[in-house]
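Researcher: Before we compare anything, I want clean individual predictions. No alignment, no superposition, just each chain on its own. First chain goes here; please echo the sequence and then give the structure tokens.
Model: Echoing the first chain and its structure:
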Amino acid sequence: MFIDNGQGTGVPTDPPTSGALPEYQYEDVRLMLLGSLTSVQNTIALLFKLNYAEPNDWSRPLATGRPNEVMAILTKRVRVD
């Protein structure tokens, strides 16, 4: 009634034993958002929904000196192949 996992499936059940895991290199990438406080907050929320970055990973909104404009910065480590 039941087939033994190792028989008849043609699919190996054990992971390959090639040794060490691959080593990846990482680099920092910096994103800057400039706009009104509302647009910056909305963009941070969108990037969170897309699973790109947590809202707490961003800097607090900083005034740019221009009327009605703030800036938020995110530094993120990304894998480079």
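Researcher: Okay. Second chain, same rules.
Model: Second chain and its structure:
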Amino acid sequence: MAMNRREVLWHAGWIVAGAALPGAWGIAVAGAGGPLKVGVIGAGRIGGTLGELWVKAGHEVLLSSRHPEELKPLAERLGPRARAGTPREAAAFGEVVLVSVPYGALPQIGRDYAAELRGKSVLDTCNPFPGRDGPMAEEARRKGAGRASAEYLPGVRLVRAFNTIPYSALRSEAHRAGARVAVPLAADDAEALAVAERLVREAGFEPVVVGPLARARDFDAGTAVFGRALTAAELRRRLGLP
């Protein structure tokens, strides 16, 4: 879907305003020359793979699940920059937090870890599937996952990211030669978006900014770009982006 004139003007003004505000890009600038602390809530196929890629890129990563003891072999294999813990520990540890859980778990995460997540950049990979997540997933699809996730995770700087690429491609296509696989991003916060773009690149992919969270529905489950490992040029063409 191509951006209309209002969206184009909004997007341009948002970038200019973010650049003009003192400290508006503080996290991105502060982390540009050094490692970030990344908490991963839900270190399964997607979260565990991304955590491994970010450790290899030099970041400190705390991998978490409801059964952290099961993640200790992975953390030990990745070396001293990785460790395993609980979701609360990951939420508290991360300067940036990746949430990669079944969509039905988002409301509880928002309630249980509100204090730990408040004000942080949060990358949301979760997709609502009614057959798995029930009626709340149907409502999330009607609203668009970006808007719905923002309601379930209040007080965070939310970015929709890494929700379209199949797990197998995350593992096999990272840092590939030639045109990299694209990761569409949507956010209302310029600082969080800048952090997400950096982490996408350092995981071995190409970030493509689609727009604010409302535009995340353009790459929700069921769209033409969902579940595909597309290049940036292919993704932009299918979404009607410049």
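Researcher: What stands out in the second chain?
Model: The beta strands are 37-41, 60-64, 82-85, 96-99, 121-124, 157-160, 182-187, 206-211. Additionally, The chain has one domain: 5-15+35-239.
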